[in-house]
């Protein structure tokens, strides 16, 4: 076993402290196209480098924490209409294998009671959806309190509820509305996000008598939220345990 001294680990971690981990959901993008498109979209942040890992994973390294956070907070991003899922690089982040059972998703929470507008309160609401990762600067500073925008790591085997019910101290039940900036295809068989059920590589073969039957239209794919009340998903959630981290500051 190779035991690494702390100074070596610290030096290695420092090299990636301003990095993001990302992958394209549902389709692979050629590296040259990726570089060309993102250079145009991210030119305001200055220089950055793209490093290719295995299984379609990319590491995006920036020159500063401010540049990294600008990219993270101003998404979602796409190349050729294919969504780029991003999250912070963290020390001791486990290796990422093929088949993404979790994915970071930006959500908007609306109709939030005023007394819930704390890091812990918003975290507790968002934890119904998954593991809260961070909130955008406007939400953290409470500049705009008509809605909260939070990045949540969601699981492929869980629903995307449109409403979170919560109980106020006077017993009143409040419905917090949820909107998703996008919703990736998910395989109901494998419980992963990187392919749809229809495109599943392990789907069973049809019996001869089923060969002639026409398949129903595929309902899966991207769902763009273009305004209030559009393209919402169904379902309800209940309150869970908070784990939210505020957005990093310079």
Automatic annotation (TrEMBL):
DUF4283 domain span: 13-92
Alphabetized InterPro entries for the sequence: At4g02000-like, DUF4283
Residue stretches of biased makeup (Basic and acidic residues): 206-234
Region (Disordered): 205-250
Alphabetized Pfam families for the sequence: DUF4283 (PF14111)
Protein name (record): DUF4283 domain-containing protein/zf-CCHC_4 domain-containing protein
Organism name: Cephalotus follicularis
